[in-house]
Here is the input.
Amino acid sequence: MKALSLDRQVVARALVLALSAWVAFAIAALYHIHNPYWAAMPVWVVAQSSRGVVLERALFRVLGTLVGALAGFAILQVPASPYTQFALLGLWMAASGGLTHVLRGVHGYGALLAGVTAAIVIIPAVLAPGTSLSLATARVECTLIGVVVATVFIGLATPRSPSQTFFAQMRRLSGDAVAFAARVLRDGAADLGAEQRRLLGEISEVEASSRLILAGSFEGYRRLHDVDSLVVGSLAVMSTALALRPEPPLPGPLDGELAHQLEQVAEQLRQEPGPAPGAPFNLSGARPGSEGLVSALVRILEANRALGRPLQASTLRPFRRRLAVLAPHREWLQAGRTALAAGLATFLSAALAHASGSPLVVQAAIGVSIFSLVLGSLALPQQIAPKLLTGVVGGVLLALFYRLAVQPALGSTAGLLLSLAPFLLLGGLLRAHPRTAIAGVDANMCFLLASQAGTTAVASTLDVVGGGAALATAAALVAGAYILMPRSSVRQAEEAVERIRRDLLRMVESDPGDAFEVWRARGSRQVLRLSLHLGRSKDLGERWPRGMLAVLSLGHAIEALHQLPSSGGDPLKTEAIAALRGLAGDPIRTAGTLRGLAATRPEASLRQLLLDLARGLEASSDLLTFGRAERAEG
Here is the structure.
């Protein structure tokens, strides 16, 4: 009961949401816009925890609705059979669903709305072809009303995005990464596995949320490059330190002065929002390879200084940023699966609705297309599917009560508005409370859809119940499919590892082309993706593969191998590259081959590089073979 208690903040937010939805509905109803309940629907999804996200979601909801309405109307004008039009709608839904995993942050919301609006415009035209233009127009008008009202009411009541708090958190994490590197240099990494997993998990989670936290701010988006630099620098500092002090540790002293300087920098990064020290680091007596550690540290310090000073006028110019040091987070395999599921579900449901000629099947088809797109856009839809189903069923039941018991007694617009207020207030409480917020979105949306508040069409009790049942059935079909066939975090982690293997193998080719540039941009991103998926998986727990960071050092060592000058009769480079082609199949055996080559080299620098490659393979062997043993046993 305590978890469901209402505090002042929840009640205040619920009142703002309910008032916003009521005002939007009232405006649409007073102007006699078709389906005025559509105007209240944006309120429940535009509402977010920070003002920047509210503004961006409002903008992309309008843009997505406009694009989707135009696409839907254009498809209906194609001189072809309804099934051809449904196929085109399926392709549009597939593209929209796929883009939700390619356009990150709030931007994917526009693609989602473009698909939803097109389905709402096209599928009802199965039984009423002449209504497509009026549906599209009403949809756009209601969306504009709802977005404007929600932006004014909710935007003013929502606090600004905590960007400075986010920057401080990112600095603290980079300080922890530098402190981790110092501890590795002093004591080795044998007892730091849990700390490494914690840092990787937190960095990946924070970086994944950066686009949402900094949304709605031009300054925030300009700062993303500095945030990326902090992330890449932090991973590089940790991976370079692990390469310098592998387990078991190499004989010989390590530079204690460098470790001491790292600890000083870490302390200042954790405490001060401004510039950290930028003095040259003392590398006298340090182990070869320490230059890479210092280079990564300099990247962190530069990004920290940039975050601590005002943006310059040149920095504010659009697109005036260097080539990204961190590749965009794009889940192409998830995008393909979502595209296939959304496109196929939409086509089949729309075709079935056309073949049946039943208004109830049309309503179910709309639900299937929308729910498949919404759930497919999520990273782990099986976790949200039960909440979505609960919200849909609850919203439908409440709508049936309203439409059958309350709405028939209303004789005026004023009565309609007064009768709807308590239901919207209940919806606001559901949406505002943290425990019911997710289910509350679907409950409110489906209450409005099933109640069809404000419509003048007369429907029988059977039609009303049947319409609500059709919507609930659509939700059960789609949610049940995702619950029974879940999108696994373990599978996503395996896909990230497979991308890492492919990128490394591209680099060991005799002519790697742009593989090194790809690795510099994508290597850190793949480690972050892998950490994010592993952190979400309850199955793996502590069984993270070793070598999460060692694989970055391995990539740099492969690049250094290619940079060796090729002398006339020296087969070293060719033999080493040939051996490295087995890194994905048997990394331990490949490491042994490289150690054998190193034993034949009198030159210290060449021998050291081959040993670095061998140690990198040994350290990252668990990662490079991740998932293969399980599949072989299966």
Q: What stands out?
A: The mean pLDDT is 83.
